[in-house]
Amino acid sequence: MNLSEKAERKSKRFHYIKLCIFLSGLSVFAQLYLFQPLLPLVADHFHTTVGDSSLLVSSSTIGMAAGLFFFAFNADSYSRKGLMAFSLLSSAVLTIISAWIPSLTVLIFIGILKGFVISGVSAVALAYLTEEVHTSVVALAISMYLSGNTIGGMSGRILATLLSGELGWQKAVLIMGIESLILGLLFWRLFPGSKFFNPQKVDYHLKIKQMKRFLTDSYMLRLYFVAALLMGAFVSVYNYLTFRLEAAPFSLNHFYIAFIFLMYTFGVFGTMITSRLSKSTEQKNILKGSILFMMAGVILLLSENICIVIFGLGLFTLSFFAAHTMASQMTALRAKEGKSSATSMYWLFYYFGSSILGSGTGYLLHGTSWSYFIIFLIVAILTAFLLTSLKFNNIHKVS
């Protein structure tokens, strides 16, 4: 392999990779958490509980986890570009279909299927970047992908909230599906194919050996559990904050609640800060610091002052994406071989955390109160911090 042929910062190929990897993240997260701000409307429409309505979000992440497990074995047998393009286009079609489904059960099933197909993007995106992009700009490329995730999550939530308030949740889902289809077509047309990877026959014995090695590597296993706990806490906050803001003492309407999700902008800063700090600061310290700030942010959500809540949400969001960016970089860089397996396992734990904690905390909130809900999240984040406090052998600083 001639490393000099890898995409460098000023090359046309790198600019197309940055653009398209950003668009892929935009589409994935706009669709994956589309129903998150719609949960109060869906609960009213189907006459169901907070916890039951949250299954519309968890179904997609459960499907995502199942898909990632499948692709952990099979991702290397498909074209990187072909798999990602198929995932983006087919998931958009499923989102469009969701606008006409009258049954909550069927919607949940479609959510599982959509999560499964869209997992093809997450399964290979980080592997593609580490294979095709010069090491000097890998951190930048990964931060662009995660920025797309961030902005996709933010724009999806804001647009869904605003559109559902004016047009109803079904039309909001339809419009978001059409937007995702357009993004998928742009990706398919512009994304550069792989130069340093060719699809190969699956060696299941090798894959099982690689996964066993990652799961018995304490470094990787701790990163996986950190991802699960932090993502579970993050999704829990954004799943149920709408219910909190609609109730006393805030009593906000859908228009103002929509712009609360602008806090996702801070997630972009989180990925950028991590990218810059990783050039001069030890990876473990960035991760630990991000988790501590995340804990501070979630504590502020106990306040009944809307300004403090907004500040806390911004700090919590920025810190989560900083921690996630660092943990995913550490995972990709640790795996010298079997990168797609390593990153698929990372996403598998990430989305299982989202699914299990994301719905479980809904039932906790329904049965107790917002204070108990926040205390549980503090315990989850503290556990993640303790995992990072154990000894990590630093891979290298990303330059």
Per DSSP E runs of 2 or more residues, the count of β-strands stands at 0
Outline the low-pLDDT stretches: 394-399
Q: In whole angstroms, how far apart are the ends?
A: 20 Å
H/E element string? HHHHHHHHHHHHHHHH
Helix-strand makeup class: mainly alpha
Let me know the largest β-sheet. none
Helicity, in percent? over 70%
The number of helices is: 16
Overall mean confidence score, pLDDT: 87
| Rg of Cα set | 20 Å
* Broad shape: globular
Strand content: under 5%
Explained architecture:
The chain has 399 residues and is mainly alpha-helical. It contains 16 helices and no strands. Helix 1 packs antiparallel against helix 8 and helix 5 (80-98) packs antiparallel against helix 8. The longest helix has 30 residues, at 138-167. It is globular and about 60 Å long.
List keywords for this structure.
399 residues, mainly alpha, disordered C terminus
Q: What's the layout of helices and strands?
A:
Elements: H1 12-32, H2 39-45, H3 50-53, H4 55-74, H5 80-98, H6 104-132, H7 138-167, H8 169-190, H9 204-215, H10 218-246, H11 254-260, H12 265-277, H13 283-300, H14 306-334, H15 339-367, H16 370-389
Helix pairs in contact: 1-5, 1-6, 1-7, 1-8, 4-6, 4-15, 5-6, 5-8, 6-7, 6-15, 7-8, 7-11, 7-12, 10-14, 10-15, 10-16, 12-14, 13-14, 13-16, 14-15, 15-16
Question: Quick summary of this structure?
Answer:
By secondary structure, the protein is an all-alpha fold.
